[in-house]
Every structure is written in structure tokens, then in C-alpha cells.
Amino acid sequence: MQHRISLSGIFPPIPTPFKENGDVDFDHLGSNLEKWNSEPLSGYVLGGSNGEYAYLTEDERVECVRVARQTIPRNRLLIAGSAMESTRATINLTQRMATAGADIAIIVTPNYYKARMTAAAMEHHYKQVADVSPIPTMLYNVPANTAYELPAQAAINLATHPNIIGMKESGGDITKIGFMVSETRGIDFQIVAGSAGFLLAALSVGAVGGVVALANIASRKLAQMMEAFRQNDLTQAREIQLPLIDANYAITSRFNVPGLKAAMDMLGYYGGPVRSPMLPLTEEEKAALRKTLVKAGVIK
Fold this sequence. Notes:
This protein is α/β, with parallel strands linked by helices and 300 residues long. It has helices at 26-36, 58-69, 87-100, 119-132, 143-146, 152-158, 174-183, 199-204, 215-230, 234-254, 256-266, 283-295, and strands at residues 9-11, 43-46, 77-81, 104-108, 137-141, 164-169, 190-193, 209-211. It has an eight-stranded parallel β-sheet.
């Protein structure tokens, strides 16, 4: 079916650059985006998990979007993280993101009062936000960070809302992704994989693309894999996917945001420091990361 806004393709959830004193480095945000603009990407996600959004003030989150919009061409989507713990605060931040230039708001599941975050509570939350959001919204499930799993049926029910256009699924349950794709056929609802480690598997059951950390440093390989899949060349797609699994693990689960930023520094982008309480990689960790990226062909 034809979608109003296509989420097909590769989207990096970009890190927020910081100066050595801890301030947001807006100059390097712009210079990184200028480099990414020459890569085969469909758009960008700002203020996601890899953007250290939990460590940013609301004003910083909005200003990152405003500054990025000046460099991101209009034919590439700007997807902005606008989640807060309360529905009221999420609505307010979503409206601010729209004013700052975001095309879509991506909203991670509230999770602090996990015992009361029932499927009904989630549906109520997302519907209230979508009802008044001036831009389309996306669901975002990332249980590794939230320790909460958005139920598949809740996502399926929310898919019928005209202002909820898709979902980033980072849990890695391919059965769940396939079930949600199957149950939302005929609805303008698109699912994107939340990790490059299972991108090919997600595509095979109906995901349309990926919002994946590895796209910050290996977008061409990921785009080639997607193209091979579209051309039904599964052998080639698999040959690209397999070496990337360990590289993706290194910059997500193993070394996390400090690892992604270190990898960006290795590849000529500005990764820079992380915000406390996170710590940068040790020299030993950097050496292990470089070895993994060389083995995967990300660094030559």
C-alpha cells in the first residue's frame, strides 16, 4: 500500500555531540550531519537512546532538532524523540519538536511506574498524544533500556489511529514483528527494526527499514543489504548481514553509546565525550572495538 510518509530505508539514531566541558556541541552536530547527508540514508532520528536524551534538558533536546533541521534537507525525514514520563509532558514536548522542524515524533514507552504500565495505560497514553500532535507519531519499544515490553496487541490496536504511522521495535523478537505486520495489513502502519543485528530478519517478515545505531558508521553496507533484499538476492543480503552482527553488538550492547562515539571518532566523524555518569571507553576497550570493526569491514 502507498504510505503517506514512507519509513522505508535506513535511519541512524544520531549521537548528541558534547564539548569537553559538557555543553552540547552544535557546530559538530552540523558538521556530522553534512557528512551523513552524502550517505544513502532516508533521514535521521534525533533525541533517541543513542542521543543520550535521558541526560539532556528539554530545551537542549528541542534546540538539537532546531539546529539539525537547518542542515537536514527536506527530502530526508527528521524524526525527533519527544517522550517524557507523563502524557502531559510528552504532548508539550511533541508540540515543541514540531515547531522546531521535526517531521515525525518518536515516543518511547513510559516505564518508571512499570507495574501500572498496562496495555490499556499505554494505549491511552499514545492515543492522547497522537490526538493532538501536529505531526505524525511513532511508537518506540526498547526493553533493553526501559525494562518494559510494549505488548504486540497494544501496538496493533494503536496502529488504527490515523496519526500513529509506525513503530520502532528494538526488542529483537522476530515472531512479534511478524505478528504485528500480519495483523496490521491494510493499515497505514510501518514497522522498522531497532537494531542492525536483526535487520535482515525483520525485513524478511515485513519491516520496511531500520532505525539502527550501526547506520552512523556503516550506512552504505546497510543500504546495500536492503537493496539486495529488495532484489531478492538473499545470498548477498546474508553475506552483508552476518559480519555486521558482532560489530552492531559492540557499539550497542557491549560498549553502548561510548562505543558508538569512539567508533565515530575512528571514522572521521566527531564522536567526542559522553555525559556523566557514563564514562568513555578505556584504551583497552577502544582497541577491542577497533579489532571488531576491522573484522566486520567497517574500518579498513
